[in-house]
Every structure is written in structure tokens, then in C-alpha cells.
Amino acid sequence: MLIKLGKIKEAEQIINHSLRLYPENPELLVNYGFIYLSKELFNEANISFSKAAELKPEYADAHYNKGLALLSLNKVEQALSNFEKTIKLDRKSTRLN
Question: For 5-39, how does the pLDDT look when each residue is reduced to its tens digit (9 = 90+)?
């Protein structure tokens, strides 16, 4: 919510603290990836989304956002692969339809 409100610094502090307590939490990693995306740190965002997808392979949001980060890095084929995974995992998703 803080990220959507543009309160990136506050969100980053909270997520950093939370990740120290729960370093294997895929939802926190995805939120951290959003922070990196907002700062245009696409490689770091990709790493965060990748770890989330590795920890929870069925987590469609991790694959979708990894695709966005990869697309921003001009890694189109890898991005498309992640978008395809998103569709397979989340058939009801309207993001890619």
C-alpha cells in the first residue's frame, strides 16, 4: 500500500525489517522487487522476483513482475517466457489477456 501511495522510503524500511525476520517470504520479496522497479533498478528487481518465484513456483505475481523487470532489461525472450508462466499459473488473470 505504501508503494502505491508513493511512500517508497517508508515501504523500503518496513520491507527491509520484515525480510530480516522472514527472508524466505515470497510476498515480501515481490514487494521489495516493486521498490527496485520504482527506482528503475531493474536487475535488482529481477533478482528479487526470481527468488520469490524460486521459493514459490506457483506464485503468478512473481513470474509476471519478473517478466516486467526482464522486459525493462531488454531481455524480451526471457520476459515472454515469464509472461507465459503467468498465464499458465493464473488463467483468470486479466493482466496478460
Answer: 677 788 899 999 999 999 999 999 999 999 999 99
Query: Using CA atoms, how far apart are residues 34 and 62, in angstroms rounded to an integer?
Result: 10
The string of pLDDT tens digits covering residues 39-49 is 999 999 999 99
Alpha-carbon distances, residue 36 vs 11, 30, 85 (angstroms)? 11, 10, 22
Q: Where are the alpha helices (DSSP H) in 1-97?
A: 8-21, 26-38, 42-55, 60-72, 76-89
User: pTM of the entire structure?
Assistant: 0.86
Neighbours of 41 (CB within 10 A): 16
What is d(CA 58, CA 9) in angstroms, rounded to the nearest whole number? Answer: 29
C-alpha distances out from residue 40 to 23, 61, 83, Å? 23, 19, 20
